[in-house]
Amino acid sequence: MHGVVRASLDADAVVALQVREAQALRQSLVEAGYEAVLRTGDVDDPIPALLEVKDRHGNRVDLLIDCAAWTPN
Fold first, then answer.
1. What does the pLDDT look like over 11-49, one tens digit per residue?
2. CA distance 23 to 39
3. Are 41 and 47 in contact (CB under 8 A)?
4. By the 8 A CB rule, do 70 and 19 touch?
5. Are 34 and 53 spatial neighbours (Cβ–Cβ below 8 Å)?
């Protein structure tokens, strides 16, 4: 287990994208009127990047990017 268990009001989803593809997705979301922030993890972080997306109503989803360590071989 990584990190600390926490309560959350947002939705999380794992997506199979490379970080450069997530950058393009972030731009498309911003152009569509969403607030989108792409954060990258440290070298040893099991989550290479996270794309946080919010709408005008305050709904939020965190897209966990390229989590190859979580997928079976």
1. 888 898 888 899 999 999 999 999 999 999 888 888 889
2. 10
3. yes
4. no
5. yes
Burial status of residue 22 (CB atoms within 10 A of its CB: 0-12, 13-18, 19 or more) = buried
Q: Is 38:20 a contact under the CB 8 Å cutoff?
A: no
For tokens 């199979």, the residue is 16
Side chain identity, residue 11: A
- In the chain, the N- to C-terminal Cα span, in Å, equals 19
- Confidence (pLDDT) at 19: 85
Label each residue of 5-35 as H, E or C: CCCCCCEEEEECCCHHHHHHHHHHHHHCCCE
pTM: 0.76
